[in-house]
Amino acid sequence: MNTSDRINDELLVIRAQQGSEQAVTELVERWQHRLWRFAWRMTDDEQAAWDVLQEAWIVMSRTIGQLEVPAAFPAWAYRITSNKARDWIRRRQTRRRADHIYSSSRTEVDPDPVDRIDQFEDLTQALAALPGSDRAILSLYYEDGFSVSQIANILEVAAGTVKSRLHYARRRLRRSLSEVHDE
Q1: pTM, to two decimals
Q2: Ordered per-residue pLDDT tens for the chain, 183 residues
Q3: Which residues neighbour 43 within 8 Å (Cβ) at sequence distance 6 or greater?
Q4: Which domains does the chain have, with CATH numbers?
Q5: Nearest-CA neighbor of 24 among 68, 66, 60, 72?
Q6: Alpha carbons 24 and 13: distance in angstroms, whole number
Q7: Quick one: which of 140, 128, 111 has its CA closest to 177?
């Protein structure tokens, strides 16, 4: 993101804080895709990502006046989206546990094996095998280009924790890639 984009976002945030619905709409248009992609990486579910994002935008539009530093909007938006995605994941896990307890016959559906055509497909498959938290942190770092300190701010953890999570996520990705190659 270049300097003019950051300045434009800051101005939009200030206008939104002053009650401009148009400014909120413009922020949604500018950030929707990036935040949806992040939510999708965390949930591994396209529809859930849209639901998460809708909940996040509701929170953001109601609380944007509390954002003290307009330049912090990106980290703030990612943090809210991350929290909403974690809420969705917890609800899904609770539903799955309940289904497992109350279901008399539960069948697991294994995904069909994906033919390895090129490295991109291998990487996509390996990433899909990772936990949502690993996909999210790798996405923030490599796809969105956030620094370790920015990710720490987004996830509300120490920078050392981000470095550790990146290290272990990369390790699991390498292991997952080698498993994909072995198939």
Answers
A1: 0.60
A2: 678 788 899 999 999 999 999 999 999 999 999 999 999 998 889 999 999 999 999 999 999 999 999 999 999 999 999 999 988 888 877 666 655 544 433 344 444 443 334 566 777 778 888 888 888 888 888 888 888 988 998 888 999 999 999 999 999 988 888 876 666
A3: 49, 52, 85, 88, 89, 92, 132
A4: 1-95 (1.10.1740.10), 117-183 (1.10.10.10)
A5: 60
A6: 8
A7: 128
Place of tokens 């989206």: 81
List the structure tokens of 179.
């498993």
- Residue 66 to residues 16, 155, 180, 183, Cα–Cα distance (Å): 11, 18, 46, 51
Among all chains, which residue has been given the structure tokens 């800051």?
Answer: 10
Residue with tokens 């956030």: 146
